[in-house]
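lol ok so funny story. i was supposed to be doing the assay writeup but got distracted and ended up predicting the structure for this chain instead. priorities right. anyway since i did it might as well share w the group, maybe its usefull for someone
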Amino acid sequence: MASKIKPAPQISIKSNATAGKMSQEVPDTAFDQLAESIRKKIGIKGPVKGEELTSHLEMVCGEVNRLLRSSFGPKGFDKLIINPVNEIVVTSDGKTILEEIDILHPAVTALKNLAKSMDKACGDGTKTAVILAAALIANGVKLIRNGVHPNTVVQGYRLALYKAYELLEYSSRPAKSHEESYAVVLGAALSKGMQPGLAKELTHVVLRVVERLNCLSPEGCLDLNENIKILQKSGGPEVDYLEGLIMDESPARPDMPRNFNKPSLLILNYDLKFKSEYLSPRHDKMARNLETAYSFRDKQKDILRGFADKIIGSGADVVFCEGNVDLRIEEALARKGILLFKKLKLKDLEKLSKATGTQIMVISDELAPERLGRADSLEVIKKCHESFVFIRVQNQPIMSILVWEPVKYNLRKVEEAVDDALNSAAFLYRSKMIVTGGGGVEFDLSQMLRLYALTLEGKEQLSVLEYANALEEIPKALARNAGMNALDAMTEIAASYSRGEEARIDLSGKVRADAPFVYDLASIKKLAIVSATETACSMLRVDEIRLKK
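and the output, tada:
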């Protein structure tokens, strides 16, 4: 897309340094190159207004639309992006694509912000919102070129939005069965190109996890980042889940036990070893002779032995340490049959602390048995040349999902699919309202908006018609990516619509009005339409783009 935006001409930029009455111009090559690269990314070389502005908006939004349209839906294609440091990103996620293309044009920036806001608000629907916003801007530009005032276009778009929202409210209905809930989450998982078999297994797991967490969370307060841990590994394909915590960690020593029933857990922060060679806390005395060095070493052994005895005396069966642990402590714990994990991530320890009802302590604290955490079971398993510790804790709002993906380069796509599926499931339990998926609801809205446009007077009618045309970009994109002829697909959907059937683009690449059904969340669809319309209206109200000097 960057190649179709005319770069700014080479401009000589000089740095002036003034000292008293002396003035000297010093060329700064690095600054010149940086400024020139930024101008190329922005794609404008000076003030842009009038016909040039409309051309910019039409070209940029058309390119963004084409970029995301081909990756839309379960049959969409991936984008292989090479960033400036030669890292390869393979993704079909709308937000990731817009972030990685590294273009700073104001219109692209507005669409990037739209994608970020959608991802932050509901974790899904980013491409729907961006494709619709880009189509609305491009269609609005056509009206402006034909003499329609931008404010009239914006007013017509707002009328169309109010009517579309009202129609969505009317078209929405609650998900009454498990099959309908399953169809909603499955569509979210498949939208990132995950294998159908793995996506179906993931959907069942996600529904169980979110349903269980909703029962355990106080007052239905569910935080996906805090309550769920997700791991993606090469292998499988397979999906494991656990009511508790799964950690990809190995025991500190191979001779430590691997299984516990109802273990007591101790969580420690910081290192359990000595690094300093000073003899005093002030660091003003060092071992200068052999006798002093031996004495210091013996003292270190006594202190480390005291640490080990303190841990053993606490009654802990398993110890999790955020830092490193001295080998002498490891040996002492292994002799007593205590399992030790070291060099752990603090985020995992915080989740473990929340799940087991303990606090993260330091070795200087009182390690009493009543301050230890409890788990129902703990097991260390080695799979695909990696060690995992499964800590089962029932009736606590902590769940873990482990997804095995055969292809290593698809792990990022798996992460995006799991994230979308979890967000859709969480929204589903908050609001059960669903609408027809597969582009069906967008086509229905476009047809009803065309009838609504006939009731209007003035040029706002034209804006409502263009709004309806923009909505049809969604089913057209799904049809193209499924290998169908877009015109034939739209004709079949229109025929089903005239018969009163809920038609949509199916995974099989056909227009279907019977089972299996495809559903989308009504709340995400509403948010996508509102956000896209507001973004398009804000861009169409711009009459000039200026570069700050």
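The chain has 18 helices and 22 strands. The first strand starts at residue 14 and ends at 19.
back to the writeup now i swear
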